[in-house]
Amino acid sequence: LTEVSLDPNTAHPKLIISPSQDCATFTNEWQDVSENDARFDTTLNVLSHQSWDSGRHYWVVDVRGKVYWELGLTYPSIPRKGRKEDCWLGRNKGSWCVEFFDGDYTAWHDGKSHPLPIGTHFNRIGIFCSFPAGLVMFLGEDSMTPLFAFCVGTFTEHLQLALCPGHDLQGCNSQPIKICHA
């Protein structure tokens, strides 16, 4: 597993990042955080402190008890401000994600959705990235079930891990999203 931590300076103000920086929780309360260019202001995203531009990397994210989340990789140049969909993971040329909503998995890149015919509710999602292969792959980590692979070719920027724990949906999605450590 590649070591990774969440950057609170990128987190939407309705996300609470744990002191250990491995957990993001949605709250209805707007957090008292400084405004900066790195912070997402309409999408519930947070990015990793770290970025990578070579090698192979693998991360595991615990999504247990959640009915809505998005996980992926993004270039640091992802738009962070405004209501345009390009701020959302996978809705632009510079990010790749898998979304889980209400029992359905969908892979996204460049605004194109790929509904995934998967009936299993996974507790842990693996994200694999290979710079030499130009590959971003998502797995249901519980059983190592491949969910979707994006064959990117050549990455043009560093990549950062991106997480969105989703709204709490009247309390049924209140669990945090958590990075698993080795």
From TrEMBL:
It comes from Astyanax mexicanus. Pfam families: PRY, SPRY. One of its GO terms (cellular component) is cytoplasm. PANTHER family: B-BOX DOMAIN CONTAINING, E3 UBIQUITIN-PROTEIN LIGASE TRIM65. This is B30.2/SPRY domain-containing protein. InterPro entries: B30.2/SPRY, B30.2/SPRY_sf, Butyrophylin_SPRY, ConA-like_dom_sf, E3_ubiq-ligase_TRIM/RNF, PRY, SPRY_dom. One of its GO terms (molecular function) is zinc ion binding. The keyword Metal-binding applies. Keywords: Metal-binding, Zinc, Zinc-finger. It comes from the Eukaryota. Residues 1-182 form the B30.2/SPRY domain.
